[in-house]
Amino acid sequence: MESAIVHLEQSVEKADGKLDMIAWQIDAFEKEFQDSESEPISVLQLLRSVTQVKEEYQVLRQDIREVLQLQKQLTESVRAQLLQVHGHFNILRNRIIGHNRTPQLK
Questions:
Q1: What is the pTM (predicted TM-score) of this model?
Q2: CA 99 to each of CA 23, 92, 93: distance values in angstroms, whole numbers, following the listed order
Q3: Which residues does the UniProt record annotate as the domain Ska2 N-terminal (predicted)?
Q4: Who has the most CB within 10 Å: 33, 40, 49, 52?
Q5: CA distance 11 to 3
């Protein structure tokens, strides 16, 4: 139990260090863009744009999954109907062949 607590504390310290580094990098990035003559770009705006793209990508992936699922269902349905038509064809063919083989008495 004690080792788990120590491990947790180490993980928290490591995460805290990473967060500090990210905050420092964001500050440096903002300062670099503010110093340039181009239109200033906020890191938050960039993060929002990236987040929006990721969300749109996830929606697109979900739509593709749904299309693939519908395609699979359609394929299975068409295959079942084809097997049914093939079965009816065989039944009718056998009836016709069987009907022609029996001698007719008049």
A1: 0.46
A2: 88, 10, 10
A3: 2-96
A4: 33
A5: 12
3-state secondary structure 8-47: HHHHHHHHHHHHHHHHHHHHHHHHHHHHCCCCCCCHHHHH
Distance in angstroms (rounded) separating the CA atoms of residues 60 and 54 = 10
Query: Radius of gyration over alpha carbons of the chain, in Å?
Result: 34
Name the amino acid, one letter, at 99. H
List the chain pLDDT tens, one digit each, 106 residues: 667 676 667 777 777 777 777 777 777 777 776 665 555 567 777 788 888 888 888 888 888 888 888 888 888 899 999 999 999 999 999 998 887 665 555 5
- Alpha carbons within 13 A on the beta-carbon side of 99: 6
Q: How far apart are CA 14 and CA 57, in angstroms?
A: 31
